[in-house]
Amino acid sequence: MGLIYAGILAALAVLLFLSRKQEIRAEPDTPAFSRYFLKPALWLYRLWENAETKQGEKRRQGNGTRGKGADGSRAGRNRSCRRREAGLQLREELKLLYPSDAEERLFRYRVEKLSALLLVCFAAATLGGLILLSGSMEQRLTPDGRLRRNSYGEGDAQVRLKGRAEGEGGWEQEVELTVSEQKYTGQELEAMLPQVRGILEQEVRGENGTLDEVRTSLFLPSRVGTFPFEISWKSGNYGLVRPDGTVNNGEVGEKGELVELTAILSYGSESWEESFFVRVCPPILTREESRERLLLEEIRKEDEAAAYEEAFQLPGTADGKNITWTQERSDSSSVIFLLVMAMGAIQYHFLDDDLRKRLEKRERQLLLSYPEFISKLTLLMGAGLPVRAAFMRMASDYRKKKGKNRSYVYEELLLSCREMESGVTEVEAYEHFGQRCRLPQYRKCAALLVQNLKKGSAGLLAALQEEAEHSFEERKRNAREEGERAGTKLLFPMMMMLAVVMVLILVPACFSFGGM
Q: How far apart are alpha carbons 394 and 49 in whole angstroms?
């Protein structure tokens, strides 16, 4: 996995270098970290556009030919058509949201989307690499086969090792062991003795269910508190149970044998003794467990022989076979990498859903803005202004007080005014206005305005007044629906508050009855 992480980061570094001369301005709402990948995203997007252009030219040149690859070409054309349709739909949706600069918005939307994907790749590779690096820093097995200990006071270390027997009939076996920390000398221990004040009670059974049936090693602690003092143990039968808790029960009969263990807990010049009677029973071991016991026994011998050294040599042979050692460690970096990449893919997918929500918000705002728009248009036309002058007046008022409050209906109105100023006829401008707004109310208003131009203005003002009255009734109905929707959203929080109130009432009542 390390090569994959390094490859991703190297590729991103190359992209940053190649795109250093690209020029693109970050928007205020662009996320801070995504801004660093805007230039590489722009470079990739332009590269993709050039490739699409060349592929389109090749496709046009080969339209008149048929042959062996006709099916593959047809599949490629189908994929290209689907991509083109998706791009056209996205362009139309952005044109509805940003009428005046839809192409620029489409360009920025795709570049920022690609920038977010590059950011996700960078975050996934960086997190995965850091986790992998932190795991490699915990390497305890040296190249010459020595197992490093923790330094003084750092505690024991858990290590997973894999022993590999070489030669004919070779095998591999994983073992887990506890490597004790580096021991203090006698002079250092004597200097620490006045500081010891506590005794830690220890369990003896270890992984055994009861002391009356001992089949695996006992847990005989060798520490007192946080200091490096060991509890000394005496065994009634060192051949069966050693002071370190190792149980040699390979030759024990089915009924087992009783062994007396004595723990000597020392503090200064005082000591305490406690005896434990254990019944050592024969082991129930699989082939893998017998190999593991063999390797652990050999490691224990080397450990005891080098207890005061910084590291000890792992055994090179076991059961007459040469052993090579490698340290096993968990690598969770791939999981983090995949999770971050999955989150990035989900985010990449839901960017389009966010665009749909913005379109729904636009339509909702257009619906709520219609009564104001139609009443203002009716008022201006009632004052004697023609339709075009009324549109220009409303667009001019909106331009003056626009600020940060964006109104989609007046943005469409501004676009219609620009169309008329650029030479588009009023009929086409009003029809385009209704088509862009898409709601039936605006289509009806545009139809009334077009009818006014084609057949005369008789009855137009009365029709607009009637439409204004009807729109205000619709506004009241929409307000009631919004209130009902808000009440539905508040239902769940109210139920939670009711549950909290019931708990606050019932719990003291139950305690009071219990006290009686």
A: 41
